[in-house]
Design a protein that fits this description.
Distance between the termini: 72 Å
Largest sheet: 7 strands, mixed
Structural class: mainly beta
Radius of gyration: 20 Å
Helix content: under 10%
Number of strands: 9
Length: about 130
């Protein structure tokens, strides 16, 4: 029997470079949000589809692609009194060079939230407090 040498296939650098933007597009950013407890028995909140992450350096905007435990405009979510209320937002990926970003609810009325200068981490999973 003759021994066979198996060589690992290689991918041309120009092909790797060409597909890199597509790979980065598939990344997602997960933001767990805490709406601080209030004594109000009828506090209502919702999220607008125009909520974005904004890269501090480039201005790149990552779009909201999914939401959990909160309703999307025009519907409302009732927040229980005296308890922090948690919900999760999922966004398209941020650019590789992003080190700080803002979470901003851009809406055509008063009351949109803004969490400035969130420090980027390797996992792209964050916990923020909405005030």
């Amino acid at each position: 029997m003759k021994a066979t040498t198996i060589t690992k296939p290689s991918i041309a650098p120009e092909i790797l470079e060409a597909i890199q933007p597509a790979v980065e597009e598939e990344k997602q950013v997960i933001v767990h949000c805490c709406f601080a407890a209030t004594p109000s028995p009828d506090m209502l909140i919702r999220i607008w589809p125009s909520t974005v992450l904004i890269d501090e350096h480039s201005g790149h905007r990552s779009s909201l692609v999914h939401h959990e435990n909160i309703t999307l405009f025009p519907y409302w979510t009732l927040v229980p009194p005296f308890a922090d209320f948690w919900f999760t937002l999922v966004f398209t990926g941020l650019p590789a060079g992003c080190s700080y970003f803002d979470l901003k609810e851009e809406i055509p009325e008063a009351g949109g939230f803004h969490v400035p200068r969130i420090k980027r981490n390797k996992s792209d999973i964050y916990r923020v407090k909405i005030t």
